[in-house]
Amino acid sequence: MAERVVLAYSGGLDASVAISWIGKETGKEVVAVAIDLGQGGEDMEVVRQRALDCGAVESVVVDARNEFADEYCLPTIQNNALYMDRYPLVSAISRPLIVKHLVDAARSHGGTVVAHGCTGKGNDQVRFEVGFNTLAPELDVLAPVRDYAWTREKAIAFAEENKIPINVSKKSPFSIDQNVWGRAVETGFLEDLWNAPTKDVYDYTQDPTANWQSPDELIIGFDKGRPVSIDGRPVSVLDAIQELNTRAGAQGVGRLDVVEDRLVGIKSREIYEAPGAMVLIRAHEELEHVTLERELGRYKRHTDQKWAELVYDGLWYSPLKGALDTFTTHTQEHVSGEIRLALHAGSIIVNGRRSEESLYDFNLATYDEGDTFDQSSAKGFVQLHGLSSKIAKKRDLGL
């Protein structure tokens, strides 16, 4: 039996060409593995059959939509994870799940090599290979696009020369990655930072002015940091993301134009659409403001940022990321309640909060009759709070 390569298969040109190329160049059989992350587009059975038509000895489709939502999107919500305070990790959180299923497929189908189609300029090569090396260091890794300097032109020529059954005539100026959590677009004229995105860049969102006269107000319910209802209707995490993609997308919410710092050391310009993600993170963060004790909330804002950086940098399976997951789970114990918000003209406006776990005390906060705050204790508190600074300043002034 020939050695087998387990290939991350998207159904696109490069991945389809890779099936034939790997067979011809290495003599190994290819097992194609496609992961359904709610990306939409082609029917997954069509994708599965295409891999076989291109020469794969086996082709597997994994429906990982709920797994992705529950085990990858949910922690992103609970960590309010925005890389560089903007990007909700659309691609970054999908890679460790793909790695997991490729490793599983390698073990169940006798694979000794795993393959991906990443370039040498991007972050995904790191996310894939660090994941493989952590979960299955015994597997070799093949990266033909990176290691053999493939270009689109080379891939098309190879496909035509070898009569690979895939349409190579359609040429998009963009490189696109998408799943239920969002959509990432780069390359083409977007590489000039002065060029504004045109309407054909977007797919998950409408023009923010399209529904100017009809803002959408809704209520999102959480239980221990997990979204469980929209407008009182029970939802799964996947349901919540999908519904909010539609409703927030109709209001133009979730469009992001970002110049980000890639792990390899270069800056890149990315256009993201993540309507559901941005709404859920905003609502969850607001509920934490209501339910987390002050010092815990302050500290968690630091760990949220670090969690996002670790995931962006491909360290999903790292010890520090695991330790932060344990910490985050503990912080969510009281993050239950409802957030009311309005979606309008590309904006998310929170206008209501309620929770049985709230630390907001009306009688302490009010300035009207019924105020229970003892203002007489404030004078001594202020004096003691600044005492160390006062003593240091006196020393500095020689007093």
Describe this structure in words.
- The protein has 399 residues and is α/β, with parallel strands linked by helices.
- It folds into two domains: 4-173, HUPs (Rossmann fold), CATH 3.40.50.620; 176-354, Argininosuccinate synthetase, chain A, domain 2.
- Helix content is 41%, strand content 21%.
- It has helices at residues 13-26, 44-53, 65-78, 95-109, 124-135, 144-147, 152-161, 237-250, 275-291, 294-312, 319-331, 362-365, 378-385, 387-396, and strands at 4-8, 29-36, 58-63, 111-115, 140-142, 175-179, 182-186, 216-223, 226-230, 233-234, 255-261, 267-273, 337-344, 347-354.
- The strands form three sheets. Strands 3-2-1-4-5 form a five-stranded parallel β-sheet, with helices on both faces. It has a five-stranded antiparallel β-sheet with strand order 10-9-8-13-14. Strands 6-7-12-11 form a four-stranded antiparallel β-sheet.
- A hairpin with a 2-residue loop joins strand 6 (175-179) and strand 7 (182-186).
- Helix 8 packs across helix 9 (275-291) and helix 10 runs antiparallel to helix 11.
- The longest helix has 19 residues, at 294-312.
- The mean pLDDT is 93.
- ATP binds at residues 8-16, 117.
- Its main location: cytoplasm.
- It is found in: Cytoplasm.
Tell me, what's the shape?
Answer: elongated
CATH architecture descriptor name of the largest domain? Alpha-Beta Complex
Strand order of the largest sheet: 3-2-1-4-5
Strand proportion, as a percent range, falls in 15-25%
Topology as a string of helices (H) and strands (E): EHEHEHHEHEHHEEEEEHEEHHHEEHHH
Give the end-to-end Cα distance, rounded to a whole number of Å.
87 Å
For the record, the CATH class of the largest domain is: Alpha Beta
Q: How many strands in all? A: 14
Write down the CATH topology of the largest domain.
Answer: Argininosuccinate synthetase, chain A, domain 2
Q: Whole-number radius of gyration?
A: 25 Å
Mean pLDDT: 93
Name the CATH superfamily classification of the largest domain. Answer: Argininosuccinate synthetase, chain A, domain 2
Number of domains: 2
Main β-sheet: number of strands, strand sense, barrel status? 5 strands, parallel
Output the structural class.
alpha/beta
The parts where pLDDT drops under 50 for at least 5 residues are none
Structure annotation, total helices: 14
